[in-house]
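Example record used in the benchmark description.
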Amino acid sequence: MKRYGLIGRTLAHSFSAKYFTEKFRREGLDKEYSYDLFELPEIGCVKELIRDTPSLAGFNVTIPYKQQIIPYLDALDAEARAIGAVNCVKIADGRLTGYNTDIAGIRVSLDELLGSAAVDAALILGTGGASQAVQYVLAQRDIPFSIVSRDPAKGNFTYDDIDPAVTESHHLIINTSPVGMYPHVDEAPQIPYALLTPAHYLFDLVYNPEQTLFARRGAERGARTLTGLRMLYAQAEAAWDIWNA
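Model output (structure tokens):
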């Protein structure tokens, strides 16, 4: 039986095992494949995981290892190299190759959220691996963006800098941070929600809970919102295609 899985530090929030287990059962593949969660206290433990799991044919990567995994790989797909973050690894002939399927999920999600609407610019909340993927997709779509970080050295704005002028010139706001993820469901990025309008679009990459506080607060102001479950499904199917290519 071929094994797949997800590596991360804390995986209680993950839907991946449920998604793939149900997929394998639905498609009659559960006798051939399994999907497990592998919590690693540090990224160096991935070496032992691979050594001790000879049937492992690939794995997904989540917070905080999307960038830290790269030195442990033998090769990178061109898009993963351009982004500098990996969320999918294929193991074949003893070689580990990194990919970024977040891109596929972000594309699908933006299509659903924006439809045919044009936006002036985007605010990206967060600077991690998911933020890098969002920046890549927005650049491909010629949507200007600014980065918001708690660290002034890492972004164009800090959260305290978001004022009426910023919100009026950035009608797409994307949360790439883990703020609001289960079990911290009563948290949300510290932006001035009172300044949001029905002309704003909010995309939260967090998928657990399905309706985040960030999205709820945006919807209360009339903004159109989307959370990360649609992205999760799209990137999972992209990973499956990679593992079976």
